[in-house]
């Protein structure tokens, strides 16, 4: 693959060598994959890394294969550390972003009356976790208001930080239900100034936008490898800051990998983020994830983050211009998730018609985003999420399909 960010006034060089990237991605010959917010298409080197490890497990045994591949396993941490701008010891593997999030929450000793300050666009499962904490521990959940143009009002959120002194501040970088990109660095600056614990869900942004945990100023950051990083399924990670590690935060249920059982009545947590991991690992998937991060870094987060939202904007604008189709994404900054309401159609039927044209999409429903969809007054929408390896031609194909299906 070739990275070329230089451009002349007359003939701009392409940001990426699309032909090579698509040749590396067998799925692009089969489908128009606009469901990267669900799961990205695997690149061949990632697929091979997973398959080779499974083959080794079959040949020499699962534990023995893991021992033979310690370097590749270690590269999961070094690659993510490079991607996020932290040390390998700040990274824990997790089987999903939700599991990483719950494990981080479990480390916070919430008490009755503690405040969790979140945004109206935090991910559904995070909101459910907050509600569960409210049910069990009596915490109070406060949602910062949105700006009229969409996205959280950071100044209002900062005022709530000062007046309510939350036990935790939470924000989802890009929600599952719209293309909104929340200003997580601005929120983080206030958290650092006030020394508040800050948890960021970067599940939809990792692999799509550059992430720098030092600039974000977060204490925890969660992500998946299967979406815009294009890794295998059931892989994710948790970043844990040095502050949190030094302060002794540990998950409620720590296991023999996360801690040493030092005496019959005591244990010592691991000094690194590995205290948030479990002993059992899907080694093939971990090695595949390391390869996916390596691949994304080789393609380059800078060109990826310029091409991907541009492709999405092109799609969003064209769909919004069609009669009966309404783009729903709002906010000062938008990413690669495009959500549209389609008038007078049934969700499953509409998606099935896209499936029949080999166009991969997803549906979102009111209960995925009670606040956002309530504000927008929609019960469901179609979500389309291109990635850098999709083409302008594919955007035209999707628009043509919508034109035909909404006629
Ligand atoms: C914003 C956001 N956070 C978290 C998740 C959960 O990720 P996982 O399915 O890996 O638990 C998703 C999944 O769609 C998401 O969109």
Automatic annotation (TrEMBL):
Residues 34-398 form the Aminotransferase class V domain. InterPro entries: Aminotrans_V_dom, PyrdxlP-dep_Trfase, PyrdxlP-dep_Trfase_major, PyrdxlP-dep_Trfase_small. Coiled coil: none annotated. One of its GO terms (molecular function) is transaminase activity. It holds the Pfam family Aminotran_5. Keywords: Aminotransferase, Transferase. This is Aminotransferase class V. It comes from Kribbella flavida (strain DSM 17836 / JCM 10339 / NBRC 14399).
